[in-house]
Amino acid sequence: MSSLLIGIAGGTASGKTTLAKILKDSFQDKVTILKHDYYYYDRSHFKVADHKINFDHPDSFETDLLIKQLKELKIGKAIERPVYSYKTNERLDKTKKVKPAPIIIVEGILLFHYEKLKELFDLKIYVDTDADIRLLRRISRDIKERDRTFESVKSQYLRTVKPMHQKYVEPSKYQADIIIPHGGLNEIANDLIIKKIKDHLRQI
Ligand SMILES: Nc1ncnc2c1ncn2[C@@H]1O[C@H](COP(=O)(O)OP(=O)(O)O)[C@@H](O)[C@H]1O
Ligand SMILES: O=c1ccn([C@@H]2O[C@H](COP(=O)(O)O)[C@@H](O)[C@H]2O)c(=O)[nH]1
């Protein structure tokens, strides 16, 4: 089985997970989703409040491991992916088994920054959402789901998230095959991607 590898990149809170979920709902067990975030290095020795961690720099991820595991999935082998906690900045001791599937979706802010990772994708999608909308979404999400305070989201955003977005994420947009404006619930774009996936499934 040759899997179709789809990369979904875009700034924080642009709608990457939302799009990946829409595709998963449409194709169910034919889709496996991986997040680059699972591959964050362990930073449990720092507290988020220390403001010393730059989670938005390309060196924060163990990207070589993601590349290795994607190559295994692509040839039909199951992998044991890392498990990361946003609440403690920790790579946990346990791993999680991920089975191969005809469609493998990877999502992450910086996927198209790395040459060797970028070239693995059969389809590269960049979800493009205005910075003010993304910031508002991130504030709500991080307070609700990632145990953060407004002050910590604000200072992290100004210190690292915004400058790294401008330096690394935004330029990587031009590596994409498709750029989706108003990310998340853009029905026309989502329908086009669904059609592309159906074409692939018909061929295998
Ligand atoms: N089109 C949209 N309209 C309103 N809220 C959205 C939309 N797309 C995503 N969201 C919300 O914004 C937050 C971030 O979206 P998410 O898909 O998780 O982004 P990402 O994976 O890029 O960080 C989530 O709370 C999600 O429910
Ligand atoms: O421990 C962590 C790990 C990551 N982050 C932030 O997460 C976003 C990437 O996730 P999205 O779902 O794409 O928003 C990135 O901007 C990191 O700053 C974190 O805060 N803590």
From TrEMBL:
Keywords: ATP-binding, Cytoplasm, Kinase, Nucleotide-binding, Transferase
SUPFAM superfamilies named in the record: P-loop containing nucleoside triphosphate hydrolases
Domain (Phosphoribulokinase/uridine kinase): residue spans on this chain: 5-188
Main localisation: cytoplasm
Location within or outside the cell: Cytoplasm
PANTHER family: URIDINE KINASE
GO molecular function annotation: ATP binding; cytidine kinase activity; uridine kinase activity
Similarity section: Belongs to the uridine kinase family.
GO biological process, one term: CTP salvage
InterPro entries recorded: P-loop_NTPase, PRK/URK, Uridine_kinase-like
Keyword Ion transport: no
Name of protein: Uridine kinase
EC number: 2.7.1.48
Keyword ATP-binding: yes
Pfam families: PRK
Catalytic activity: cytidine + ATP = CMP + ADP + H(+); uridine + ATP = UMP + ADP + H(+)
GO-annotated cellular components: cytoplasm
Pathway, per record: Pyrimidine metabolism; CTP biosynthesis via salvage pathway; CTP from cytidine: step 1/3; Pyrimidine metabolism; UMP biosynthesis via salvage pathway; UMP from uridine: step 1/1
